[in-house]
Amino acid sequence: MSSQARPWNFSAGPSVLPESVLRQAAAEMLDWHGSGMSVMEMSHRGKEFGQICSEAEADLRQLLNVPDDYAVLFMQGGAIAANALVPMNLLGRSDAADYVLSGSWSVKSEKEARRYGDIRVAASSGTVLESDGQQWQPWTWVPDAASWQVRPDAAYVHLCSNETIGGVEFSDWPDLAALGASDAVLTVDASSNILSRPMDVSRAGVIFAGAQKNAGPAGVTLVIVRRDLLGHAQAACPSAFDFANVAKEGSCFNTPPTYSIYIAGLVFKWLKEQGGLAEIEKRNIAKSALLYDYLAQTGFYRNPVHPNFRSRMNVPFTLHDAALDAEFLSGATARGLLQLKGHKSVGGMRASIYNAMPIEGVQALVDYMKEFERTHG
Amino acid sequence: MSSQARPWNFSAGPSVLPESVLRQAAAEMLDWHGSGMSVMEMSHRGKEFGQICSEAEADLRQLLNVPDDYAVLFMQGGAIAANALVPMNLLGRSDAADYVLSGSWSVKSEKEARRYGDIRVAASSGTVLESDGQQWQPWTWVPDAASWQVRPDAAYVHLCSNETIGGVEFSDWPDLAALGASDAVLTVDASSNILSRPMDVSRAGVIFAGAQKNAGPAGVTLVIVRRDLLGHAQAACPSAFDFANVAKEGSCFNTPPTYSIYIAGLVFKWLKEQGGLAEIEKRNIAKSALLYDYLAQTGFYRNPVHPNFRSRMNVPFTLHDAALDAEFLSGATARGLLQLKGHKSVGGMRASIYNAMPIEGVQALVDYMKEFERTHG
């Protein structure tokens, strides 16, 4: 099957993977590197999986330029579990934490954290309906760091670096010391833009990401944590989710999701082959510009996000007439443009164009959108 | 590659999978059923994964004859996470729970539970060294239910149905009402013998199992829970791990480990093709008898477990002279008999002979053991 024979998959996650990664996984399924075993069949304490896991960690460290005083953990439960596990791990000493709200995911994080400490909103670019945290509000920008109200005793300040649903992205993370919160650390939910661009890991205390957008399959969560933050978990934190235990045992405190780590490792090697994050960022800029430039020219489709904060990963857009949605989607599917339906809380469409989506796929989408506009405009 | 060309893999977990399952997974890697997507690339909310997940649940229900008043959940974190999540979910009303100790895993469960409630030991067949819960004690039988000291106000009584390290198995679970604990439910860690024999699900309130022994790859945890127990989680229980949330959303409260569920589903279909659990049990009896019968005849190797409680899944044995261990292991590897080294806390050897290990593999092991005895006896 050639690259062109596969449809273009715009799923927000789990999402498209590099075809070469899938081909290698298929070829190695029954026998990894002459071991006679599938990766799924290996003891997590054996030398074969030990090599797979340590190479994955080393490659991730190299890609993100992770400093030595940070641990890299492969965990489980995704971002929704991490919404609880971050406060459980960090609020053992001070129980105060501040949250920056920029969309559905950061709202969800803040709500979950409330049960573990004294949580405040440091800044918000939208209105949260308490009756339904999931209901979409027009989150069209991210709060400028100068406006954040960070408490001096906050253990951490949380942000979501890319809001998958609203399509809003932080282009940079602030230096908390400059905000007068030198004892706090930044915690970042980077689930949907990790590895899509270089990131300054040293600005954060914890970065976490469900792998299923840019880093691999669902079932493994990347956690990058500064080592001096380890060892202060709340008493109720399950042993398996205490970052200190996981760090001490090299992600093998309990049986890790071995096959998901293996696939993530193949994705990391693919990223290195592409030229690393600097090159990937260039491609992601070009891909997202192709789509946003077209959206800027047409009144037929609309994206509400302020130009400075548009996500390079997730591009939500609506048709000027929602009555056309079903026809747009069925026509897209017929052309091999898959999973474009927007999140239920937003409606409309969403094109997720993660690392593994080549520019040819974005071009095919824009071509279809133009044609649909011509025939229905 | 024929079945004979693959080595025999005795790993305790993650462990051998049916070859036909691996072949199907390889063949479908780039395109599941004409969808144009790998299962790893599918949205967990799309119709394709919806079908995969609901078929896996239906097949598991059929295999284990799960009553309708039980929810079947696909979760994450394995048994070590479940050691915390079970008390967090069940001790919201009464905070008392009693534990039956029969080896390393039940000891670990009891220790973890202490942070969530008033935990007592109902019965024990060994001695726990508090200084090192991992140090092996001669757990060679399981406590008879008539000896259990169950408190009348206990929310649940916990047991581990098969101790992977000690090689000790419960052949049956008691009826708690007959023990005078009619308000308590049984919770069972069935990680290493689920699906190896029929089980009376209705005798338990919660059954959990990491999939990586008999049910699939690491990264997915099976949880079977009686529905009336849902909705009483402790306040500190993370939303993602509240059984009520997971049940309500059909295992999609957060992004589930989609690929691991898919592989587990293929294993369930393979089990049905083999004739279900009654047939699998027959094979497991024959396989384990082949090994135990030989162990009973020889003084060269030794298994310390009482004959009534020997595990059909995990057969630990020691050589009469531990100085021969290294040579035994290297000779085994040279013959394609892999991962026989015993758990570090026990030493010696361990042959894990899960469902996917055919009797030919056990025969090959016994043949090698006999030859080694002849040449080194």
Automatic annotation (TrEMBL), chains A, B:
Drop me one GO molecular function for this one.
pyridoxal phosphate binding
Indicate the enzyme's highest-level EC class: transferase
Instruction: Name where it mostly resides.
Output: cytoplasm
Identify one Gene Ontology CC term for this UniProt entry: cytoplasm
What protein name applies here? Phosphoserine aminotransferase
Pfam short name (any one):
Aminotran_5
InterPro entries with a match to the protein in the record: Aminotrans_V_dom, Pser_aminoTfrase, PyrdxlP-dep_Trfase, PyrdxlP-dep_Trfase_major, PyrdxlP-dep_Trfase_small
Q: How is the cofactor bound?
A: Binds 1 pyridoxal phosphate per subunit.
Organism of origin: Corticimicrobacter populi
- NCBIfam families named in the record: PRK05355.1, serC_1
